[in-house]
Amino acid sequence: MFRSLPFLFGAVSAANLRSNVSQSLVHQTSALSFYQEEPQCQCMANNAAWKKTTREEAKCIFIDLGAADGNTFAKFIENDYGPVKNCPSGKWEAFLVEANPQFTKELNALQENFPGQVHSLAEHAAFSCEGTTSFFIDADASHNHWGSSLMSDAPDAVKSGKVKVTVPMLNVVQLIAEHVRPDDWVMLKVDIEGAEYNLLPCLAQFKEAGLVDRMYLEEHWWFPSITEKSKSALAESKKNLMSMHVDIPKYYSAS
What we know:
Elements: E1 26-29, E2 43-47, E3 60-65, H1 71-77, E4 92-98, H2 104-113, E5 118-122, E6 125-127, E7 131-136, H3 155-159, E8 164-171, H4 172-179, E9 185-190, H5 196-203, E10 214-217, H6 228-243
Parallel strand pairs: 3-4, 3-9, 4-5, 6-8, 9-10
Antiparallel strand pairs: 1-2, 7-8
Helix pairs in contact: 5-6
């Protein structure tokens, strides 16, 4: 089985990933507040209206939150996250989520180059609910704009003068609920410049969070608005996720 292997460190549209929500069916909790302009939605961890995939065979599913220009996806298909030839059924799919519009061209090109396998979710911020939000651009191309963030006090956003765009938010929990089978091998990479302190407490409330086999999480604990309370909430979320058999190895990406 692919899920027993040791892993190394290192045609769907955005509209199709959304469902109309009946508030009577939604379990909501308050989102943590770190943002200059608070996203106008709450954690949506479970919803009976979400439709499960009808896909008939298991695959590797690589969900890349903070996909940039596809550089981490390139490592995935080069076997840095495990031998893709050993994926269930020998097949894989990748969902590339990135809010920075500077990378839209590259991500859409990957979707065209890998039809039915790569799904570009360009110009969408990974979050715990749906709505719109400000996104602050790191202007430094020398490190591939890696510090772009939803958080107005993100160091690289501050250095760049807090230049911002408005983007829709994608509920990552819903993406998992609607596109993952229990027998898939699911890798979730989370490098979202502080928004993990919102996403993980919500993901930990998802009753099927164990659909995720491995999460590669980069924690941005040094951001000014990340409090001890938020760090504790993230640690508790990780503990809860691991109790649901989500493997969370130490992870840091230099790209």
